[in-house]
């Protein structure tokens, strides 16, 4: 896993270095980095929300296809692909936005563990020498050599054993946020650091809950409500466990990222809501139906004004047999619903078979 975090950490490290060269505070840089990541991922989030809105609209049709072709998986898949094509939906479109945050997180862990390499651009030889000097001084190795060097940079062994410019650069490195040392790994001891893992889990849970509440149909199609509910509880617990295993800088990034994701989810839902897409899709289908009627009128040499509503007789002449049967059945259902006070149920293709 180290080779993966190293590879991802390199480009992220250069971004952090660029930000730090302007703002000489690692904590502020981490905040700006989180905002920048969200901004760069925003187009993918928009695409994902659009796909989610579409899914919410044709979810009933998916269930109908699954039930109808339950014993014929090949036909079921064929009908599903036709449905996706009609709605312009790619079932794999939501995978990348879900995976990217974890990929970035692994890279960020490397940057936070190795700030001397990524942010200060101190050579590997100097870091190796500093590690040897700490070991010779009897300072225990925590497995985080660059963070150990930061913690003990004022130790005489390092001050006297390293080049003066290297010592000065490390001593002037501000690795804190509002006085909080971002290199500390949280423990269950009663202090402020304990809040970081807890808040990372709480914010992750709230984001999952908001997402499920706003897009229930898409979540059902994705893997069933049972699985989604399990994920809603498991992922926050996973984030707590991770936050207790890494420096608080990682947990802080996760908290801020979760907050931004929650705000983004609410905003995108208002802009690209399922209700809005449903209305647009129905208008599109209506326009295509009208276009087909005009084409039939031309073939049958019936004069119609596209800007005027059709009279009932002309409309019947232009409807296909299937459309005519659909309209008759819909009218009958509507009459029965009004007569008996029942709920009107839309006519589906299954009803016309």
End-to-end CA span: 55 Å
Estimate the strand proportion: under 5%
Number of helices in the DSSP assignment: 16
Mean pLDDT: 79
Shape: elongated
Order of helices and strands: HHHHHHHHHEEHHHHHHH
- By DSSP, the count of extended strands is 2
**Radius of gyration over all CA atoms, rounded:** 30 Å
Low-confidence stretches: none
Strand order across the biggest sheet? 1-2
Secondary-structure class: mainly alpha
| Whole-number count of domains | 3
How much helical structure, as a percent, in the residues? over 70%
The major pleated sheet works out as: 2 strands, antiparallel
Oligomer: single chain
Outline:
One of its GO terms (molecular function) is membrane insertase activity. This protein has 353 residues and is mostly helical.
Molecular structure report:
β1 and β2 (180-181) form a beta hairpin. The relative contact order is 0.10. It contains 16 helices and two strands. The chain has three domains: 2-120 and 186-272, no CATH class; 124-172, no CATH class; 275-352, no CATH class. The chain has a two-stranded antiparallel sheet. α6 packs across α7 (145-151) and α10 runs parallel beside α13 (248-271). It has helices spanning 2-22, 26-68, 73-87, 95-113, 115-118, 124-136, 145-151, 156-161, 164-171, 195-214, 216-223, 225-243, 248-271, 274-299, 312-318, 321-340; strands spanning 176-177, 180-181. It is elongated and about 95 Å long. By secondary structure, the protein is mainly α. GO terms for molecular function: membrane insertase activity. It is found in: Cell membrane; Membrane.
């Amino acid at each position: 896993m180290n080779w993966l975090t190293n590879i991802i950490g390199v480009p992220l490290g250069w971004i952090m270095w660029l930000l730090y060269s302007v703002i000489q505070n690692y904590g502020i840089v981490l905040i700006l980095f989180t905002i920048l990541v969200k901004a760069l991922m925003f187009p993918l989030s928009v695409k994902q929300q659009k796909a989610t809105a579409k899914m919410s609209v044709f979810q009933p049709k998916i269930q109908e296809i699954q039930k109808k072709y339950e014993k014929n998986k090949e036909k079921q898949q064929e009908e599903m692909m036709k449905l996706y094509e009609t709605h312009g939906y790619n079932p794999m479109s939501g995978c990348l936005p879900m995976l990217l945050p974890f990929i970035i997180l692994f890279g960020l862990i490397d940057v936070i563990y190795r700030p001397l390499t990524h942010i200060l651009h101190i050579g590997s030889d100097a870091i190796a020498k500093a590690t040897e000097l700490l070991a010779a001084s009897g300072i225990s190795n925590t497995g985080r050599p660059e963070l150990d060097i930061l913690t003990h940079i004022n130790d005489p062994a390092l001050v006297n054993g390293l080049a003066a410019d290297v010592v000065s650069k490390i001593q002037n490195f501000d690795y804190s946020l509002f006085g909080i040392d971002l290199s500390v790994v949280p423990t269950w001891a009663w202090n402020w650091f304990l809040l970081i893992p807890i808040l990372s889990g709480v914010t992750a849970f709230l984001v999952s809950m908001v997402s499920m509440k706003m897009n229930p149909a898409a979540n059902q199609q994705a893997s069933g409500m049972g699985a989604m509910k399990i994920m809603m509880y498991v992922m926050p617990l996973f984030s707590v466990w991770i936050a207790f295993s890494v420096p608080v800088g990682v947990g802080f990034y996760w908290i801020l990222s979760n907050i931004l994701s929650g705000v983004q989810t609410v905003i995108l839902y208002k802009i690209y809501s399922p209700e809005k897409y449903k209305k647009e899709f129905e208008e599109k289908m209506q326009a295509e139906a009208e276009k087909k009627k005009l084409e039939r009128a031309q073939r049958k040499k019936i004069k119609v004004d596209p800007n005027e509503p059709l009279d009932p007789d002309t409309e019947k002449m232009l409807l296909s047999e299937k459309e005519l049967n659909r309209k008759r059945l819909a009218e009958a259902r509507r009459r029965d619903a009004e007569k008996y006070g029942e709920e009107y149920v839309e006519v589906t293709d299954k009803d016309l078979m």
